[in-house]
From TrEMBL:
Cross-referenced PANTHER family: ALPHA-KETOGLUTARATE-DEPENDENT DIOXYGENASE ALKB HOMOLOG 3
One Pfam entry name: 2OG-FeII_Oxy_2
Entry keywords, A to Z: Dioxygenase, DNA damage, DNA repair, Iron, Magnesium, Metal-binding, Oxidoreductase
Organism from which the protein derives: Pseudomarimonas arenosa
One GO MF term attached to the UniProt entry: demethylase activity
Essential cofactor(s): Fe(2+)
PROSITE patterns in the record: FE2OG_OXY
InterPro entries with a match to the protein in the record: AlkB-like (IPR027450), AlkB-like_sf (IPR037151), ALKBH3 (IPR032854), Oxoglu/Fe-dep_dioxygenase_dom (IPR005123)
An individual GO BP term: DNA alkylation repair
Protein name, as recorded: Alpha-ketoglutarate-dependent dioxygenase AlkB
Length: 185
């Protein structure tokens, strides 16, 4: 994790993306039950980068100029290509992300995910999946930071963002991914 963009640029990106993104409020089906997703999302990618999780199939929106510029900067910093990005919008302290691993088959055996944080600092909790000797850790993600998850991170850990009782402002995360095209995984 490292500081990637300056605080004032992060603030203006937050404002721009909040206003200009066609945010979705989705309902997930988990074990046959319907749940409103506790945050808003938007999925962008190259044509054909379809992604599905928790019973939700998502077709990508076409890249905007702004997101393409950010993708190029993140690719340069990570020396890694990304063909899609999932945006998460946490409106306040009541929005959250349940504990999960990004281990869908589309992402391949060792997913590389670069996550850019804008706005309110939230803590990404990591909990071990199958090694009881490992302890959960909390990673605070300041505005403008870039987190790279790769290798066995998804295999060995779950991660998520808990609700808070402390009032919090909005946060957007941009999670850049590589989705294997059918037949190329
Ligand atoms: O908002 C975050 O930092 C976490 C996002 C995440 O885990 C995901 O999009 O899979
Ligand atoms: Fe994730």
């Amino acid at each position: 994790m490292r500081q990637f963009i300056a605080a004032d640029r992060a603030e203006s990106l937050l404002a721009q993306l909040t206003a200009d993104t066609p945010w979705r409020a989705d309902t997930l089906t988990l074990f046959g039950k319907q749940h409103a997703q506790p945050r808003l999302t938007a999925w962008y990618g190259d044509p054909g980068c379809n992604y599905s999780y928790s019973g939700l199939a998502m077709r990508p929106l076409l890249w905007t100029g702004l997101l393409q510029r950010l993708r190029a900067e993140v690719e340069h910093a990570c020396r890694q290509q990304f063909n899609s990005v999932l945006l998460n919008y946490y409106r306040n302290q009541r929005d959250s992300m349940g504990m999960h691993s990004d281990d869908e088959p589309e992402l391949g055996p060792a997913p590389v995910i670069a996550s850019l944080s804008l706005g309110e600092q939230r803590t990404l909790k990591f909990a071990p999946r199958n090694n009881p000797q490992l302890r959960a850790i909390g990673l605070p993600l300041p505005s403008g930071s870039l987190l790279l998850m790769q290798g066995d991170t998804q295999r060995n850990w779950k991660h998520g963002i808990a609700k808070s009782t402390r009032p919090m402002g909005p946060r957007i995360s941009l999670t850049f991914r590589w989705i294997g095209k059918p037949g190329k995984i």
